[in-house]
Design brief:
2 domains, globular, alpha/beta, binds fe (ii) ion, two-stranded antiparallel sheet
Length: 499
């Protein structure tokens, strides 16, 4: 393992090249259409200082680069740094090279990536699953980040001679957390082995308070305080703030629950389309006062899928409220190159990297995929309190995940209207598609795209359930693929979201 002091200096050298980006937006190219959004913001004279652009095609990104002079850091997708085996996976290496080409095209100072995945042990998911918060998982993340940063260094040189910095974002919890390390200790272990920066997303932090069970024992302010003491705040390069809401798959159930137990905290999950709740700005204020944000370079509202009017309103308020506060939050007088104070020194169990260690982690992830998809029970060390919390897991298993497969990111009945009508005539329920989805692993062989996976899997499902409908489902699939491909090429069509 690399000495953490060397890693620290490497990080400081890299981050020193990044100018202050200030207050910006984290946006999708397609949703809302970025060029229309920029026109609306210009008309209202509400101007972001930078735009963090979510993953899109090279041609769409080139259009964006031509249309604006503001800095364009990047929000990558589909590079699953949490997963073991990346070093021998040509798909991972290919994704990293494509990512580097996008960074070079945009001249991005950083590339943000969620510490999460949508593909585990051959099983596909629509939205991010957090990593297993364990020692070996943190070690794999650090190793994968170092590999990707080396690819950036080789392939994405910036005009100043440096290269884009890999940022790792703490992901949201969606009803549960699994592992044996606390989340802040996990990120400290990663940053002690990789010279990356971090993105602290305030809404994600709220979901940690909610779904780690901390809310039962602590006030929100106490929780944030404790979290900051352990988390490597000195590595935070960017802060995100985005909306939270009760997910559409459980709105009616949540209404019932809240009317029965009004003191229950809402079951919010990450939701970029909705207004940002004021509680997140209270948390943000507390974090900005902590005095350890020495490498903060930008704060962005994450606004993909939000209406342009709401974005302009929220950004106007954000600029007004935080323009001065942002600069005050960055402590001055710290000696460049000096290692940052480490309030909780990481305790390393230094184990040699080995095939068996990687296999053990792969097995743990396979078990994790089985638990979250209801094929195994949440038992064993990774599901034990106090680090793990599965008390709300059933919301994910019974509501959120089936909704994701049948409706989210492509509603099956809207995608395959004729096939679904025929299936209904044969009394074949679509619910069977959810269990079919998780019956066997299906490793992906091309760039990950949930919509694409959905099309493939539905064709297989129908072919198995009703072979006489095979030609019909294949025809509808071909039409979908062609329309999708055409939509992905321009910056004026919607294809997906960073959720
Ligand atoms: Fe975020």
């Amino acid at each position: 393992m690399t000495l953490s002091r060397d890693v620290c200096h490497d990080f400081q050298d890299r981050v020193a090249r990044i100018p202050i980006h200030g207050l910006g937006l984290s946006v999708d190219v397609y949703s809302p259409d970025l060029l229309s959004l920029l026109a609306d913001l210009t008309r209202r004279q509400v101007l972001p200082m930078y735009l963090e652009v979510f993953h899109a095609t090279s041609s769409a990104l080139a259009v964006v680069r031509d249309q604006t002079d503001v800095p364009l850091p990047y929000h990558g997708e589909g590079l699953w740094v949490t997963q073991p085996g990346a070093e021998s996976d040509p798909l991972f290496q290919g994704e990293a090279r494509v990512l580097a080409s996008h960074l070079a095209l945009l001249r991005s100072a950083w590339s943000n990536h969620e510490c999460a995945t949508k593909h585990i042990a051959g099983y596909s998911f629509g939205t991010y699953l957090p990593p297993l918060y364990t020692v070996s998982s943190a070690d794999v993340v650090a190793k994968n980040i170092n590999m990707v940063q080396a690819i950036f260094d080789q392939r994405a040189a910036l005009p100043d001679g440096g290269s884009p910095l890999f940022l790792l974002e703490m992901p949201p919890l969606t009803f549960f957390v699994a592992g044996t390390l606390s989340i802040p200790a996990y990120f400290r272990r990663v940053t002690d082995q990789a010279a990356c920066g971090l993105v602290l997303d305030i809404g994600h932090l709220w979901t940690v308070y909610r779904y780690s069970g901390a809310w039962r024992a602590q006030s929100l302010a106490q929780f944030v305080d404790e979290f900051l003491r352990e988390f490597p705040v000195e590595r935070v390069v960017e802060i995100h703030v985005a909306g939270l809401a009760v997910h559409e798959s459980l709105v009616s159930e949540a209404d019932v629950m809240n009317s029965e137990a009004p003191n229950l905290l809402p079951r919010w999950t990450d939701a970029h389309a909705v207004p940002i709740p004021p509680v997140l700005f209270e948390m943000l204020d507390q974090i900005l006062r902590c005095g350890r944000l020495e490498h903060l370079r930008g704060m962005a509202l994450e606004v993909d899928t939000k209406t342009s009017d709401l974005i302009a309103d929220e950004l106007a308020w954000f600029l007004e409220r935080y323009r001065k506060v942002f600069h005050q939050a960055i402590p001055r007088g710290l000696v460049a190159g000096a290692p940052s104070p480490s309030p909780v020194p990481a305790q390393f169990i230094t184990e040699p990297d080995s095939v068996s260690k990687s296999e053990a982690l792969a097995e743990a992830y396979d078990q994790y995929a089985q638990v979250v998809s209801s094929r195994a029970e949440p038992v064993g060390p990774n599901w034990k309190a106090p680090m793990a919390c599965a008390e709300e897991l059933d919301w994910y298993r019974a509501k959120y995940l089936p909704y994701e497969i049948l409706h989210w990111g492509g509603d099956i009945e809207a995608m395959f209207p004729e096939t679904c009508q025929e299936l209904a005539g044969k009394q074949i329920a679509l619910d069977g598609f959810v269990s079919y989805w998780f019956r066997l692993p299906h490793p992906v062989t091309r760039s990950y795209d949930f919509f694409d996976v959905k099309i493939d899997r539905f064709v297989e499902f129908v072919s198995e359930q009703a072979s006489d409908l095979k030609a019909l489902v294949q025809r509808e699939a071909t039409e979908l693929r062609l329309a999708y491909q055409a939509a992905s090429e321009g910056p004026r069509q919607s294809t997906g979201t960073p959720l």
